[in-house]
Amino acid sequence: MDNYVAKHDKLMRLLQMHIESATPDHAVVTMPLTPDHRNGMGFAHGGAIFSLADVAFGAAANAGKLTGVVSLSTAIEFLRPGKTGPLRAEATAVRRGAHVQSYDVRVYDGEGTLIARCMASGYQTDVALPS
């Protein structure tokens, strides 16, 4: 998939994420749940979950753009422990204004259980995305 985030995001590769699909309206990103993605209790690490949600937001918000969208604010709510993988984040556009982009992002574990939800907002810059 030709997506700016997939091409340039090094943390995404480090955490073994994969962009399944990405349009300005919706993105799906998956991540395995290996021992390296788990916290000390054996559940999905909150930082890994947040990173997955952030990448899904970024993949959607920057899809098809020539200039970048950067994060303004992200509020996340952890609902249940992530027990099984892979984890899947789905970002859905709520508002796609000229400057502010807002997405509802839901994160599910491998059993389809909703484990986190967040609202992510970004600002449409005039900075060209690298090719």
From TrEMBL:
<protein>
    <submittedName>
        <fullName>Acyl-CoA thioesterase</fullName>
    </submittedName>
</protein>
<dbReference type="InterPro" id="IPR006683">
    <property type="entry name" value="Thioestr_dom"/>
</dbReference>
<feature type="domain" description="Thioesterase">
    <location>
        <begin position="41"/>
        <end position="115"/>
    </location>
</feature>
<keyword id="KW-0378">Hydrolase</keyword>
<dbReference type="GO" id="GO:0016289">
    <property type="term" value="F:acyl-CoA hydrolase activity"/>
</dbReference>
<dbReference type="Pfam" id="PF03061">
    <property type="entry name" value="4HBT"/>
</dbReference>
<dbReference type="InterPro" id="IPR029069">
    <property type="entry name" value="HotDog_dom_sf"/>
</dbReference>
<dbReference type="InterPro" id="IPR003736">
    <property type="entry name" value="PAAI_dom"/>
</dbReference>
<dbReference type="InterPro" id="IPR052723">
    <property type="entry name" value="Acyl-CoA_thioesterase_PaaI"/>
</dbReference>
